[in-house]
């Protein structure tokens, strides 16, 4: 469903010179699978997800989403994905219900299906107690839920979430993770970024540890802990990053 081949993005930064935000990464994500991009700040996670959602063009390599090339067929790609970016983009003057409804119409969901779809989503995400609250009056968690609802309203086969639980309390974060798990059960292909180890352990079928735009390791949590002789994913993560930093310091 997602096929990424030697994907790279080079930015020319005024101060730092050329920056390889993404340095030739390759991976695949299948339907019914949750794939995690785990990496520290500045690792390249958002860059990767923005390329997959056609917001940004790669400088090298190739990415296919639902069989469509992100550069050559961006409209087709957009029709098959739901993308939740870091920035929730909530409109102050609309209620949650109105916003999700608005996106449903943008995606061309027939009016008779739209209301039942909204009812279902508001139920699943437990959004009914604030369905008529305006964007300007919403808490972070409410905004995050509306943002997720908007991402999934058209029932796309591929879902891309950039740090979906950032800034949420444990209760809302849990509801979000449960929603993601239920989307997997429906056979969706899901990729999400995080720097929270527990989320990876609980949710991901496979994970790629990413740092300085490179994938340092990829596999199931069990494969990674075994291959690197560490007790958990956090230790694997520290070891890989330490090793890379040591290697770079020696050059
Ligand atoms: N528009 C841009 N121009 C120049 N450099 C950029 C641009 N966007 C991102 N970068 C750089 O690319 C690198 C990767 O950034 P990216 O936002 O993908 O990281 P991230 O893994 O999402 O980090 P975080 O966890 O902080 O969200 C960083 O060094 C960042 O400064
Ligand atoms: Mg990011």
From TrEMBL:
The keyword Cytoplasm does not apply. One of its GO terms (molecular function) is ATP hydrolysis activity. Keywords: ATP-binding, Nodulation, Nucleotide-binding, Transport. Residues 2-237 form the ABC transporter domain. The keyword Iron does not apply. Pfam families: ABC_tran. PANTHER family: ABC TRANSPORTER ATP-BINDING PROTEIN, ABC TRANSPORTER ATP-BINDING PROTEIN NATA. This is Sodium transport system ATP-binding protein. It comes from Planctomicrobium piriforme.
């Amino acid at each position: 469903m997602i096929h990424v081949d030697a994907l790279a993005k080079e930015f020319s930064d005024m101060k730092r010179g050329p920056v390889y935000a993404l340095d030739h990464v390759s991976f695949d994500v299948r339907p019914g699978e949750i794939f995690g991009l785990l990496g520290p700040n500045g690792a390249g996670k958002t860059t990767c997800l923005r390329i997959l959602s056609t917001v940004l063009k790669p400088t090298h390599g190739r990415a296919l989403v639902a069989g469509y090339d992100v550069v050559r067929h961006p409209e087709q790609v957009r029709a098959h994905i739901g993308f939740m970016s870091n920035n929730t983009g909530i409109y102050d003057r609309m209620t949650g219900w109105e916003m999700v409804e608005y996106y449903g119409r943008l995606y061309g969901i027939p009016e008779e299906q739209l209301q039942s779809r909204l009812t279902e989503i508001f139920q699943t995400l437990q959004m009914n107690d604030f369905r008529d609250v305006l964007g300007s009056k919403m808490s972070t968690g409410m905004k995050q839920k509306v943002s997720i609802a908007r991402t999934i309203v058209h029932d796309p086969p591929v879902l891309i979430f950039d740090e979906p639980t950032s800034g949420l309390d444990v209760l809302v974060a849990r509801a979000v993770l449960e929603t993601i798990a239920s989307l997997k059960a429906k056979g969706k292909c899901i990729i999400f970024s995080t720097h929270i180890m527990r989320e990876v352990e609980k949710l991901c079928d496979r994970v790629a540890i990413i740092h300085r735009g490179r994938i340092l390791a990829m596999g199931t949590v069990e494969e990674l802990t075994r291959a690197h002789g560490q007790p958990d994913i956090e230790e694997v993560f520290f070891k890989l990053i330490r090793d890379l930093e040591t290697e770079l310091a020696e050059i």
